[in-house]
Write a structure and sequence with these properties.
- It is a multi-pass membrane protein.
- By secondary structure, this protein is mostly helical.
- It has one domain: Na+/H+ antiporter like fold (Up-down Bundle), CATH 1.20.1530.20.
- It is built from 15 helices and no strands.
- Helix 5 packs across helix 12 and helix 7 packs across helix 8.
Length: 322
């Protein structure tokens, strides 16, 4: 989203920082509400899919047909990024599961997170990190549109040994709660641009509040299991995310991409649509399987913000030495 013409770059940056750093705080609050208020919150688990649909509809409203033009104009970085997304994160999940010897339910949840599309907050983080924002939007959009096919296929293939899964049902749900809302939001943006422009500033906050509620619902349903597996899940999530970011950056470097693209690929590969993963896990797996997605929703915003700060620090140092 472009800053208004009268806003300074500093104001735009400050607003983006507040949004990005506010995301994990609200999601943490959601997790605490779900954990300590599980007796009350746990009875509303049927809200998860509608809330995920609302989040994806909001993503669709932020898109324009021009956002997909990069796929035609510069297909190579988009292709590299999307392939890295659906290769690196699933394989990194397998590695984490193997190294930590996670219980079956947790292992399946970590793998599902790895097979999810890119996270919507990655676009803001790419902007903060001075990455290629157009590439970030294109990668998120393409990976999201591919999710109804690739997420259930990869999850069934890689996590099927840990528990029986309904790949067809998962694919149908992803179509209903991801693909349809995103396309509907894009259509509304095309036909009602002025009305959408008025609500664009509040969309990030609507989305993060919805994600926080999803996390609260997921945590409440897995309350009894969290204390037993909480630390191992946290370690798994941190390792998974950091591996994804490092290997995403490495994929960009290995294919000769410029620094801005490498930063974007690190963010896009490492930041997952973990709210979707948590919701699918809650529906198709055991309650404990949803915890990796819930924790990932908090952690990847924190790590993404720290990565953006590191990138800016590197840029400042280069500017002062030239």
């Amino acid at each position: 989203m472009d800053a208004p013409e009268h806003s300074s770059p500093q104001n735009a940056d400050r607003s983006a920082y507040v949004a990005t750093l506010g995301f994990p705080l609200l999601v943490i609050i959601g997790g605490l509400v779900g954990f300590f208020g599980h007796g009350t919150v746990g009875g509303h688990s049927d809200w998860v899919n509608p809330l995920l649909g609302l989040i994806m509809f909001g993503m669709g409203l932020t898109l324009q047909p021009a956002d997909f033009g990069l796929v035609v104009r510069r297909p190579l970085p988009v292709l590299i990024g999307v392939v890295a997304q659906y290769v690196i994160m699933p394989l990194a999940a397998l590695l984490v599961v193997w190294v930590l010897q996670l219980p079956d339910a947790v292992a399946a949840g970590v793998i599902l997170v790895g097979c999810a599309p890119g996270g919507t907050a990655s676009n803001v983080v790419s902007y903060l990190a001075r990455g290629d924002l157009a590439l970030s939007v294109a990668m998120t959009s393409v990976s999201t549109l591919l999710a109804p096919l690739l997420t259930p296929v990869l999850t069934l293939w890689l996590a099927g040994e840990y528990m029986p899964l309904d790949g067809g049902g998962m694919a149908l749900d992803i179509v209903k709660i991801v693909l349809v809302p995103v396309i509907l939001g894009l259509v509304v943006r095309v036909f009602l641009p002025k009305a959408v422009a008025r609500v664009l500033p509040v969309l990030p906050w609507v989305s993060v509040i919805a994600i926080a509620v999803v996390v609260a619902l997921v945590v409440s349903n897995a309350h009894d299991s969290i204390l037993d597996a909480g630390l191992s899940v946290l370690v798994a999530v941190i390792l998974h995310n950091l591996l994804g970011m490092a290997l995403g950056f490495g994929a960009g470097a290995a294919t000769g991409q410029p620094l801005r693209n490498r930063r974007t690929m690190a963010i896009e590969v490492g930041m997952q649509n973990s709210g979707l993963a948590a919701g699918l896990a809650a529906q198709y797996m055991e309650p404990l399987s949803a915890i990796p997605g819930a924790i990932f929703s908090v952690w990847h915003n924190i790590s993404g913000s720290l990565f953006a700060m590191l990138c800016r620090a590197v840029d400042r140092r280069r500017a002062t030495t030239h």
